Amino acid sequence: MDIRAQLSMSFNLDKCIGCHTCSVSCKNVWTSRQGAEYMWWNNVETKPGAGYPLTWEDQERYRGGWEVVDGTLRLKLIKDNKLRTLASIFFQPNLPTIDDYYEPFTYDYQNLFNAPAGDDQPVARPKSLITGEFMEKIVLGPNWDDDFGGSPLYATNDPNLKNLSDSQKECLTKFHKLFYFYVPRICNHCLNPACVAACPSGAIYKRGEDGIVLIDQKTCRAWRFCISACPYKKPFYNWATGKSEKCIFCYPRTETGQANACGHACTGRIRTVGALFYDAERIEETAKLSDDKLVEGLRSIVLDPSDPKVIEAARNAGIEDNWIAAAQRSPAYNLFKKWRLSLPSHPEFRTLAMNFYVPPLSPILHQVKADKGGLFDPETDGFFTELENMRVPVKYLANLFTAGNESLVVESLKKQMAVRMWARMKRVGDISESEVKNALSQSGLTAQDAEDIYRLNTIATFKERFVIPETHRESKTTIDPRSMYEKRGTIGFGFKTKEVIGRQW
Amino acid sequence: MDKLLFGALPYVLLAVGIVGAIYRYNSNRFTWSTQSSQFLENRTLFFGSFPWHYGIITILLAHFVGFLIPSSVLAWNSVPVRLYIFEASGLALGFLALFGLLALIYRRLTNSRAKAVTTGWDALLLIVLLIQVVTGLMNAMLYRWGSNWYAASAAPWMWSVIKLNPEVEYVASLPLFTKVHIFNAMLIVCLIPFTRLVHLFVINIYKYLVRPYQVVRWYSRDPKTENVVQYK
Ligand code: HEM
Ligand code: SF4
Ligand code: SF4
Questions:
Q1: Residue B69 domain boundaries
Q2: pLDDT of res. B225
Q3: CA-to-CA dists, residue A339 to A332, A394, A435, A453, angstroms
Q4: Are A18 and A284 in contact (CB under 8 A)?
Q5: Angle at CA B120, nearest 5°, toward B115 and B125?
Q6: Sign of the C-alpha dihedral, residues A156, A161, A166, A171?
Q7: What pLDDT digit, counting tens, does each position of B103-155 carry?
Q8: Per-residue pLDDT for A62 more than 70?
Q9: Total number of domains constituting chain B
C-alpha cells in the first residue's frame, strides 16, 4: 500500500443555482490578467449544454484522456507513442483555439463620454482584448449558452445526449418538460492526470502531500500538450506569456487551512472540501477497469481513514496527524464513499478525477400530475418506482457521472429522496414514520446517516463544510523558514523578480 | 573587412548569443517559451509551422554533421549518385522550409490576432531567417555541390574560429551570397537570447522520452532525490 493524501471538492448539484459567484471569485483572485481574460479556471455550465470550451466532452475531436487497448493504458492523444508527441509538437491537430472558448472583449466606454454631439446616442462598441480592434459582433462569450440560451445551436450538440431516446431528449425542447441544471467545473486534480502525462517538459506535476496538480511556470515551454490531453479542458493557454495555466486549488489558501476562493464564495453552499486517502499503488489497475466498474474501483482505492490499518499506514507514509484527523471528518469521504452519494465527472476519461458531484434531483414527469399543476407528493406518488420519469433522464446523468452505469445514479437519487422524506417527516410531519423507514432502508441509509446528510447539505457550518488541514509549509525542508518570516506581508507568492503580466520581450 | 566580419565579429556575436542565453535561462526562465500562437490562429500555421520545422531541422542537422565530420561527408559525396541524392534532398528540404517560412511571415502580416502577439524581435527573427534560407538556397543553386565545398571551406573555418585562431582565408574567397549566409548564421546565434529561438534548447524533451508518465513532486522531501516518482 502506498498511501497518499488528496484534497477533494464535492459539489451538490441539487443546490447549485448557477449564480457564477464561484467563477467570479476565482477570476478576481487568479485570472484577471492579460492573456488570462478568457480563462475560467472555475466555470459553471448549463447542462444539457455544449459547455466551455464548446463540446469539451467530445473526445473524438479533442482526444483527451486515456484509453485501454489490449490491456494497456494509453494516452488517447498520442496512442502511447511518445514519438508522436515530437512529430506533432510544431502544430497540434487536436488543440482547441480561442474560438472554441471566446474572444475576450471589453467595450469602448470612452466613446460614451467623448463622442461628438450628434443625432444619435453614442454607443460603446465591443473591442477585442487581444487585437484591440472593434468587433463586428460578439459571437461567443462566457456562459453564452447559460440557461439554454441558443440551445438549438449549442445544447443539442451536448455529447452526453448520445444513446438517449427522442422522448428523453425532450427535456431540451418541449416546453412543459424542459429542465436543466448547472455543473460547476474546476480542475479535478486527478490521480492519473493526462495533463501531467502528456507534458514533454515535465512541467506539470502532482504534489505528493495534497494531490494538487500544478504547472511549473518556469519549466513550461508552451508545447501545449496538456490542453489537448486533459479531457476536462482545464489547463488553459496564456496567449500573452506563452505558458499554460490551470486551477491551483488555491493552494496558497488551502496550505494555511483556508477554503478555496470558489468554494468560500459559493452562495448556494453547494461545495465542501475535505481530504481523502488513497492507495497510489492501485491507480493503474483502477484506471484500466471496464466502464461500468470505474466508479466502484475509484471508491475502493479511496481508503477508510478510520480503519486502524489505514491510520498506521498513513503515519508510516509521513502523513501528519492533523491530516488524519481531517480525513476522518472529511465531507468528501462521507459523500463519496460512506454515503455513496457523490460521483466523479466522466470516469470513462480514466484520469481518475478527484472532485465529486452529487447528481441533481429533478421533478417527476407525470402527465396526470402535470395536469394537476405538477405537484409531487412523495408518499403517494411512489418516487422510488418512477425514477425513469424524471425530467432529467437518468441515462443522461449516467453519461455525465458514471460512464453510463445507471444503477449508481439511481442509488444516489434514491438516497437523496429518502433524506428529503426523513427531513419532511421531522419538520412537517405529514409523512408516516414507517414510510420513511422503508425509504431509508430501501436506499441503504440509517437514520443517523439521514441526519448527517441533512446537516451537511443544509445547516452545516463553514468549518464542517471545509475541513482543510494545514500543511505547515514553513516547517518543510525545501523552504527556509526565516525567509518565510521575512516575506510575510510583503510580495507574497510568485516570482521574486518583478511582476510578470503579459509578454516580457 | 573580411578580417572584421569573419575574424573578430564572430566572437562578439557568438559570445552575446551564448552568454546571453545562459543569462536569460538563469535570470528570467519564465520567458523561456516557444510563444506558440496556435491558440490564436491555427489554419495558416499548419502550412507554416510543419514545413518550416521539418525542413529547417533536417537541414540544420545536415550542417551540423558536415561541421563535425566533414571528411565523411566528402567520402559519401565521392560517388556521384549519392552526391545527387544528397544535394537534391537538401534542395527540396530548403524549399520546404522556405515555403513554411513564407507562410509564417504571411500569417504574421495578415492575421490580426497573430499580429497582436508579434513583437519587434519576432519580426526581426523572421526577416533574418528569411535571409538565411534564401541565401542558403541561392548557394545551393548557383554554386554547385555546396555540400562538398562546405565541408572543404566553411567547416574548417568554423573549426579555426573555435580553436581561437580564425583563418579568414577559408571564407575570404567565397562568393558574396555565401558570405552573407555565413555571417547571418552568426547573427542568428546572437539573436537566440533575445527571441523565441531559445526554444531550440529542448533538453527536457529528451527527458520526456525516458521518464514515466506521471510526475510527483514533494515539497517536503529533498528535491534532488525524490522529485520525480512514478505512480506504479
Ligand atoms: C528543436 C526542435 C524544435 C522544436 C520542438 C520547435 C518547436 C516550435 C514550436 C512549438 C513553435 C510554436 C509554433 C506555434 O506558434 O504554435 C515554434 C515556432 C517557431 N520556431 Fe521552432 N522548433 C524547433 C526548432 C526550430 C529551429 C531549428 C528554428 C530555426 C532556426 C525554429 C524557428 C521557429 C520560428 C521562427 C518560430 C515562430 C513561428 C511563428 O512565426 O509563429 N524552430 N517552434
Ligand atoms: S482535470 Fe485535467 S488539468 Fe486537472 S489534473 Fe485532471 S487531467 Fe490535469
Ligand atoms: S480552487 Fe481556487 S484556483 Fe481552483 S477554480 Fe477554485 S478558486 Fe479557482
A1: 2-226
A2: 46
A3: 10, 19, 20, 8
A4: no
A5: 95
A6: negative
A7: 999 999 999 999 999 999 999 999 999 999 999 999 888 887 777 778 778 88
A8: yes
A9: 1
The partner residue sitting opposite A505, judged by closest CB among B29, B31, B199, is: B31
Distance CA A248, CA A5 (A): 16
Q: What is the mean pLDDT of chain A?
A: 88
* Nearest C-alpha neighbor of A447 from the set A458, A464, A433: A433
Stronger pLDDT, A397 or B151, i.e. the higher one: A397
Backbone angles phi, psi at A346, to 5 degrees: 45, 65
Angle CA(A439)–CA(A445)–CA(A448) in degrees, nearest 5? 115
What is the C-alpha to C-alpha distance for residues A225 and A244, in angstroms, rounded to an integer? 10
DSSP state of B228: S
* CATH number, domain with residue B126: 1.20.950.20
H or E element in which residue A463 lies: helix A462-465
Backbone angles phi, psi at A28, to 5 degrees: -60, -40
Residue A486 has pLDDT above 70, yes or no: no
The phi-psi region of residue A65 (left if phi > 0; otherwise alpha if psi is between -120 and 50; otherwise beta) is: left
**pTM of the predicted model as reported, rounded to 2 decimal places:** 0.91
Q: Would you say residue B206 lies in a domain?
A: yes
Note whether residue B232 is domain-resident. Answer: no
Locate B23 and state its grid cell. 543569462
Q: Is residue B231 part of a domain?
A: no
Which of B26, B28, B30 to probe the A interface (max A CBs under 10 A)? B30
* Per-residue confidence (pLDDT) for residue B171, from 0 to 100: 84
Q: Is the pLDDT of residue A348 over 60?
A: yes
Rounded to an integer, what distance in angstroms lies between the CA atom of residue A69 and that of residue B66? 43
Q: Nearest ligand to the C-alpha of residue B129? A: 1
Name the pLDDT band for B228 (thresholds 50, 70, 90).
very low
* Residue A220 CB contacts under 8 Å (≥ 6 apart), including other chains: A199, A201, A203, A204, A243, A244, B33
ipTM of the complex: 0.90
Determine which of A83-87, A287-291, A380-384, B34-38 has the lowest per-residue pLDDT on average. A380-384
How many Cβ atoms are within 10 Å of A136's Cβ, its own excluded?
Answer: 8
DSSP string, A376-409: --HHHHTGGG-GGGBSS-HHHHHHHHSTT-HHHH
The verdict on the CB of residue B53 being under 6 Å from ligand 1 is yes
Q: What is the pLDDT of residues B190-201, one digit of tens each?
A: 999 999 999 988
Q: Which residue's CA is the closest to the ligand 2 atom numbered 2?
A: A230
CA A124 to chain centre: 35
Using CB atoms within 10 A of its CB, is residue A242 exposed (0-12), middle (13-18) or buried (19+)?
buried
Least confident of A12-16, A70-74, A353-357, B51-55: A70-74
Please calculate the CA angle A209-A212-A215 and round it to the nearest 5 degrees.
120
Query: Does the beta-carbon distance from B33 to A193 stay under 8 Å?
Result: no
- A504 and B54 within 8 Å at the Cβ level: the answer is no
Alpha carbons A288 and B224: distance in angstroms, whole number: 32
Span A426-445, mean pLDDT? 90
Has residue B85 been placed in a domain?
A: yes
Does any CB of chain A come closer than 8 Å to the CB of residue B89?
Answer: no
What pLDDT score was predicted for residue A444?
Answer: 93
CA dist A266 and A269 (Å) reads 5
